[in-house]
Amino acid sequence: MTRKEQKEERKQKILMTALTLFVERGYYDTKITDIAEAVPMSTGLMFHYFESKEELLLELVKMGAEGTKSASAKGIEGVPPEIYLEKFLEQLFSYAKEQPWVFNMFVLMGQVRRSGMPEEAREVALSVESVKDTAALIKKGQKAGVFRSGDATLLSRCFWASVQGVMEEMAMDKNMKAPDPKWIMSLLLKQ
Fold first, then answer.
1. pLDDT score of 144 more than 60
2. Which of 76, 97, 127, 167 is least buried, going by the fewest C-beta atoms within 10 A?
3. How many domains does the chain have?
4. Residues 17 and 106 occupy one common structural domain
5. Helices 53-67 & 119-126 angle (0-180, nearest 10)
6. Please, what is the end-to-end C-alpha distance for the chain in angstroms?
């Protein structure tokens, strides 16, 4: 392994360790020394990778924001919205089971959106437009007669609140099985 690869591997280890600790203990109750100790590495060495805890949080939130782009449905013309969303949920739950850090990322992104968090990270988390993008899909489904009538943005918020809740529960209970995506889709489908 090259030196560059080792450095990148260590950086990823720091990020994943910080993600776990931020979720388990909370951002403000996690000290930079806690992260360094859990990696393990010296605190001084960790500052070569990230200048501050805020910078570390921002990097994680940027990763989370980038990961949500797959939910945006841009460029999927011709795919019915109900099929797209159900397949998205199947893939999300399957991927998260293979890569458990994804559950923690959902929890962290939810936490960072709240007031009181470092403002730059909060702005990045709030810039994610999953609700808006999904509301556009819901409107398409309503026009097609597949999704229930009602405020598409509110339906989208309920959809994402359900997904967020499932991901948080699965982050806390590693043995929990993923729900059938059809259960969540039933929030949207016309009865």
1. yes
2. 127
3. 2
4. no
5. 0
6. 56
